[in-house]
Amino acid sequence: MPRRVNIVILCEDTQQGVFANRFLELAGKSIRVMRIEKGPGEAFVRKQFPKELAYYRARKHKVDQALIVIIDADTLGVTKRVKQLVTHRMTILLIHLAETIHVQNGHRQHVNLLFTTVHPLE
Amino acid sequence: MIRRLYIDNYKCLVNFELPLQEATLLLGPNGAGKTSVLDVVFALRRLLSGQVKVTDADAFPSATLTRWQSRKIQTVEMDVLLDSEEIRYRLEIEHRRATGEARIIVERLESGKRPLFVFEKGEVHLYRDDHSEGPVFGADWTESALARVSPRDDNTRLNQFLDSIRKTIVCGLYPAGFRTEASAADAMLRRDANNFAAWYQHLVLERQEKLPELFDALQEVIDGFRSLSMPPVGLDTRALMLAIEEHGQRYELRLDEISDGQRALVALYSLVRLAAGQGYTLFLDEPENYLALAEIQPWLIELVNASGGEVPQAVLCSHHPELIDYLGVDHGLVLRRESSGVTVVRPASELATDGGLRLSDIIARGWE
Fold first, then answer.
1. Residue B111 and residue B129: Cα distance in Å, rounded?
2. What ipTM was predicted for this assembly?
3. Structural domain contains residue B256
4. Closest CA of chain B from A42, distance in Å
5. Interchain pair A46, B356: CB under 8 A
6. Is the pTM of the predicted complex or chain greater than 0.80?
7. Which of A77, B226, B238, B337 lies deepest, with the highest CB count within 10 Å?
């Protein structure tokens, strides 16, 4: 049957995409309703974010729509990174900072992820 | 898992070294050598299965020698990781360009630089797992002597290596060529997968328990799909059929009665769901061909999530932006031919800029 995406995950790399994808699968969402938009580095996420936000707003009347943005705080720090995104005049309902430990190929790696869930409150 | 391939004097691949990960995407312009890499792996798989002579068309005939060179020796080396131990296989083939004849002059398998098997000058030296010397005997120069070694209690690593290579699937799907009928199960999926029905029959015999999982996946992607079956259609022939249920009616379609794209979906999900957990390594050439745009990413996510686990390794070649953007930055290797004609490789992550352009955009603009 035709695939219809409800959840767009905007992120920097495979690791972040797989993390979100697995998390949502555990929450009962199918891979087929997710779309991972992935590009090289935080610059891609910041550049793509206004477009995805606009697409999201255009479809927000549909049920179960979500845009999930995962961006690394890098050396900027979480507060400044959030401010960068807020300049796009979105409404942030929920911001989580997750310090996650990814285990890949036997190496433990600390990853700072900023989860931003956009919600239609305007 | 194949960690490294070294290929010398094979088509455009001269002194060419390719590192491989659990998931790898080979990128690059047409003619850069991506499919040639898959050809070498397929040739090794055939040679080490004892199915072909070295000069056979899908092995290493003299036509595969690099044309702008006059060297006679063709070399392939492969590092395979088996149970955390690195095994190195080396094959040297001497060609006579004028007559098209060729013979294996060196075939060697070693772990930790200590021998497990050596074939040189027509003579095989067998070694045990502890590297102590075993029997010495003569062997045919025109085929792999390693493929002829029988499994024993004291050569388990040699046989693990052979098993891992024999469980390598190399193919570029050509769904229009899929044959619907099979007279016998076939353990080896061909290069264009035209024996898909026979290969499916082989897998089903071994993996009955995986069928519901495959059917669930196909129900998501093919309208009305219910199940696959292989009923007899002749004395010793079976046909691959799809059970479809639409508008309250149930009917059956032969594999050749569905579209090319649907055949590709059946094959791709079978590769991930049925072959999973059996140690199959996948080398797939442009797997996204024939698929609807919306169907590419869900299949790709399944494959990448399985790679390194249920599917030990997946190596893909593609020009498609969906694959390039999903896999390219983290798992991409760009092959490119230099002005000398030689193919060089570099990580696609080196192409990624801070400008926020997608990798596929960078490649499409020729800015790599």
1. 9
2. 0.72
3. yes
4. 8
5. yes
6. yes
7. B238
